[in-house]
Design brief:
This protein has no helices and eight strands. It is mainly beta and 84 residues long. The protein has a single domain, classed as Immunoglobulin-like. A four-stranded mixed β-sheet has the order 5-2-1-8, with no helix packed on it. A four-stranded antiparallel β-sheet has the order 4-3-6-7, with no helix packed on it. A hairpin with a 2-residue loop joins β6 and β7. It is globular, with a radius of gyration of 13 Å. The protein starts with a strand and ends with a strand.
Length: 84
């Protein structure tokens, strides 16, 4: 993942993914969490050398804090920056 941002006005979480390998990767799922809520977004294949942009609506009262991505057998966690 190259970037993850919470767009406060649009109430969306945007993510940029890049697969810099020659292997097919599989994002199993993406979890966006706040202090009290979580949203799970389905996974997708990420082709070798490919980039992918993703947007997830965030309708909860609490702003999201963290993005957790399960890729193949790994877990990547990233704090969300806020675009005010």
């Amino acid at each position: 993942m190259t970037r993850a941002t919470y767009l406060k006005e649009a109430r969306k979480v945007t993510c940029e993914f890049a697969n810099d390998t020659v292997d097919l990767k599989r994002v199993d799922d993406i979890r966006i969490t706040s202090g009290t809520k979580a949203i799970i977004s389905p996974g997708f294949p990420l082709l070798p050398g490919a980039k992918r942009h993703m947007e997830v609506d965030w309708k909860e009262t609490d702003p999201p804090r963290e993005l957790i991505i399960h890729v193949d057998a790994s877990t990547v966690s990233r704090s969300l920056s806020t675009n005010d």
